[in-house]
Write a structure and sequence with these properties.
8-stranded mixed beta sheet; Rossmann fold; GMP Synthetase, Chain A, domain 3; single chain; alpha/beta; 519 residues
């Protein structure tokens, strides 16, 4: 796992691109971890990072409550790369001057590279004038003592700078190398992690798999392990990983809470009982879950109720089965990031079922072997573990299931409606060849009714929203530009085949500002 490898720490100052920085470092096969900017200095140093990256952010360093860092961090001898706000922060802390720019610079700019050593190595000749992505309203008026400019643009005299003092490996960029709009941005980041920080590209899913299996064995020792299996790629990969570590001491529990997609229980049984020969216990608790959700409209309450009931089901089974010490969950890094709130950068958007839906006190100790990974990394790990493609490429499905795709109260009737509509969306997306091209595509049942005409009769029925998005890791997403004929087929089939629906709408909002799920 990440702890077994040298790492780059990314300090988050609130940039929309922070997660992208971490991903770019991982794509260079170096482990990276995101921490809030205000994490104590001792916590940073105890992790022994090989390098630090300060992200961008929406604040100005001269604001009264602007995020900052302790000055000793800059003197700890750790290589540092400051990006945008991070550059301005380094400048201010070390005695330079930051001021409001005459014109806010947002969008592409041509970078003129003056120093093609270390950070800009490889940007010689024709590559010495790359297009970069700017997004700032402040500029460096005076560099700190002991720094010199190494790149510029027509509007920004100091577009990149580096420390010249011996022993100080501090580099700063006014532009964003992590975004796709910046040419050679990946080269710049690789130069930082490989050449300046001296890290080898040895963090791969194969090495992660080996380390994770060893870590689970060390953590569990002789204990008995349960795995909360949902059928999605996350819990499936976590289950197979745990099985590699502890063998028959693992029991997978599949709780049918009545909030699943059509055919889900059968797929899970077939995959795990037959394909992997993993012990699988099936619990039909749909009546209990649906009853507990009766009359509940608030999405956070839905998530909390479902989380508590899951644990009750596991604990009840454990009492019958004997001693059970550990519970494996398929928590991912985006779940952790979105569920941790700290001052400034990442607000808590929603409680993720795998992170915040569990009670504070429970009998099990948690094992979350995937909590360092993004979704595409989990898929890659699934391939390493030999999972079939139909599991590896399964679209994400929320832990609370269809309960949060029903806006308003959950009932058996409304579940049947959204489940049938959702199945049609999946069928038509697969038929059109878009299943692996989109991140998620699903149906949402809205809490409104509209007037319609069917068979020359007036109807007053439900509205279904179709949501389809493209994404890399779920942290940001754009609405999928599905062909109109695909949308027409989905709409026609839902209205014709799903009783009680007379209108279908298509959601064309992106994340941010919207989330992928409606609740």
């Amino acid at each position: 796992m990440g702890s077994a490898h040298e790492r780059i720490l990314v300090l988050d100052f609130g940039s929309q691109y922070t997660q992208l920085i971490a991903r770019r470092i991982r794509e260079a096969h170096v482990y990276s971890e995101i921490l809030p900017y205000n994490v104590p200095l001792a916590r940073i140093l105890e992790r022994r990072p090989a390098g630090l990256i300060f992200s961008g952010g929406p604040a100005s360093v001269y604001d009264r409550k602007a995020p900052s860092i302790p000055a000793p961090l800059l003197e700890a001898g750790i290589p540092i790369l400051g990006i945008c706000y991070g550059m301005q922060l380094v400048t201010q802390v070390l005695g330079g001057k930051v001021a409001r720019a005459a014109h806010r610079e947002y969008g592409p700019a041509t970078l003129l590279v003056d120093d093609v050593t270390d950070l800009f190595k490889g940007l010689e000749g024709e590559r010495a004038r790359p297009t970069v992505w700017m997004s700032h309203g402040d500029r460096i008026e005076e560099m700190p003592p002991g720094f010199r400019s190494i790149a510029r643009t027509s509007n920004t005299p100091v577009a990149a700078m580096k420390a010249t003092s011996p022993g100080r490996r501090i580099y700063c960029l006014q532009f964003h190398p992590e975004v796709a709009h910046t040419e050679s941005g990946v080269t710049i980041l690789k130069n930082f992690v490989h050449n300046i920080c001296g890290l080898k590209p040895d963090w791969t899913m194969r090495s992660f798999m080996t380390d994770a299996i060893a870590a689970i064995r060390d953590q569990v020792r002789a204990g008995q392990v349960f795995c909360a299996l949902s059928g999605g790629v996350d819990s499936s990969v976590a289950a197979v990983l745990a099985h590699r570590a502890v063998g028959d001491r693992l029991t997978c529990l599949f709780v049918d809470h009545g909030l699943l997609r059509e055919g889900e229980p059968q797929v899970v049984r077939e995959t795990f009982a037959k394909h992997f020969k993993i012990k699988l216990k099936f619990i039909n608790a749909s009546a209990r879950f649906v009853k507990a959700l009766d009359g509940v409209s608030n999405p956070e309450r839905k998530r909390k109720i479902i989380g508590r009931l899951f644990i009750k089901e596991f604990e009840a089974f454990a009492r019958k089965a004997g001693k059970a010490d550990w519970l494996v969950q398929g928590t991912l890094y985006p779940d952790v990031i979105e569920s941790v709130s700290f001052k400034g950068p990442s607000a808590t958007i929603k409680t993720h079922h795998n992170v915040g839906g569990l009670p504070a006190r429970m009998r099990f100790k948690l094992i979350e072997p995937l909590r360092e990974l993004f979704k595409d990394e989990v898929r890659e790990l699934g391939k390493e573990l030999g999972l079939p493609d139909e599991v590896v490429w399964r679209q994400p499905f929320p832990g609370p299931g269809l309960a949060i795709r029903i806006l308003g109260p959950v009932t058996k009737e409304r579940l049947a409606t959204v489940r049938a509509a959702d199945a049609i969306v999946e069928q038509e997306i697969r038929k059109a060849g878009y299943y692996q091209k989109v991140w998620q595509a699903f149906a949402v049942l809205l809490p409104v009714r509209t007037v319609g005409v069917m068979g020359d009769e007036r109807t007053y029925d439900n509205v279904v929203a179709v949501r389809a998005v493209t994404s890399v890791d779920g942290m940001t997403a754009d609405w999928a530009r599905l062909p109109s004929e695909v949308l027409a087929s989905i709409s026609t089939r839902i209205i014709n085949e799903v009783k009680g629906v007379n209108r279908v709408v298509f959601d064309i909002s992106s994340k941010p500002p919207s989330t992928i799920e409606w609740e």
